[in-house]
């Protein structure tokens, strides 16, 4: 047997007190650096949230921001949305005539709602032919586009004139919208046909008939609206709205509770569960109606400047906006009649809402996404809205 050297296992050297102290110091420094990094990350996130919570900034910087902010418009009346520039173009730049029309059309101070309805007549007299109607539609859409509107539902009440019947009126507006779509390909533009509360059942059904015919021929008409004098009941039109929804697949929106004295058809209209409610200014003042509306899953179209200039309330902060937002009701910010009411562009309406009710960027995004969700083009899958949804998510027009 050969001699074998016994190899002894090497025992680890015991760490000296000095080495242990240095190691602990290195670990403490590394932990401190990691904690500092995490603290900085948390602080940065808190700063972002604080910035959003204190939004908006100060005027006029804010208004410039809102003009570049993506916006949705669900409640805009064509005959209430004409700018002085559009009116001038319609009358072929006859400045004296244009000035006279604007003076009878555009408000400078709040007046009773009953008197506001007379303002529409100033432009209806120049929208009595297809050429003028076409200009009104195309120029109004261009102004919404320039104001950062990505999705627009324009609404109008068909009228009979010396050169147009209801069908020709509807066709003229639809053709103008199709033309505007080519001029503004980044926008989605659709039409809502409005019924007036003072209409007879026969007139309303005639308009619905032509609406259905043109609807089949073009992808433009997506909804039907009930509007007009808010003091009048519209029982005679309830069946027409039902048929529009049931057999024509149209979205339904209705002007409801615009005045403190609420007509007796209001409960019936709410029980129809319209997709959206226009104004709804005084619904919250009636417990029964507030409960019915709160359970209806309808979106509320809020028009802040309109409510101020029709003396529904005397300041934007008195708006019913906060009441319904607090209760989780989906809301859209709308202009109503930007041509009649001063400082009521869509950007200005968004700014007023953000300023008065301290809306954050997340609030604005939710309002926009709710508006897009309740748009009639989305409800009836009339177009792809994914690109607009992306821009809303990113708070950008690009």
TrEMBL record:
<keyword id="KW-0479">Metal-binding</keyword>
<dbReference type="GO" id="GO:0009117">
    <property type="term" value="P:nucleotide metabolic process"/>
</dbReference>
<keyword id="KW-0378">Hydrolase</keyword>
<dbReference type="GO" id="GO:0004000">
    <property type="term" value="F:adenosine deaminase activity"/>
</dbReference>
<dbReference type="InterPro" id="IPR006330">
    <property type="entry name" value="Ado/ade_deaminase"/>
</dbReference>
<dbReference type="InterPro" id="IPR032466">
    <property type="entry name" value="Metal_Hydrolase"/>
</dbReference>
<feature type="region of interest" description="Disordered">
    <location>
        <begin position="1"/>
        <end position="39"/>
    </location>
</feature>
<dbReference type="GO" id="GO:0046103">
    <property type="term" value="P:inosine biosynthetic process"/>
</dbReference>
<keyword id="KW-0862">Zinc</keyword>
<dbReference type="GO" id="GO:0006154">
    <property type="term" value="P:adenosine catabolic process"/>
</dbReference>
<comment type="similarity">
    <text>Belongs to the metallo-dependent hydrolases superfamily. Adenosine and AMP deaminases family.</text>
</comment>
<feature type="domain" description="Adenosine deaminase">
    <location>
        <begin position="70"/>
        <end position="379"/>
    </location>
</feature>
<protein>
    <recommendedName>
        <fullName>Adenosine deaminase domain-containing protein</fullName>
    </recommendedName>
</protein>
<feature type="compositionally biased region" description="Basic and acidic residues">
    <location>
        <begin position="17"/>
        <end position="38"/>
    </location>
</feature>
<feature type="compositionally biased region" description="Basic residues">
    <location>
        <begin position="1"/>
        <end position="10"/>
    </location>
</feature>
<dbReference type="GO" id="GO:0046872">
    <property type="term" value="F:metal ion binding"/>
</dbReference>
<dbReference type="Pfam" id="PF00962">
    <property type="entry name" value="A_deaminase"/>
</dbReference>
<keyword id="KW-0546">Nucleotide metabolism</keyword>
<dbReference type="InterPro" id="IPR001365">
    <property type="entry name" value="A_deaminase_dom"/>
</dbReference>
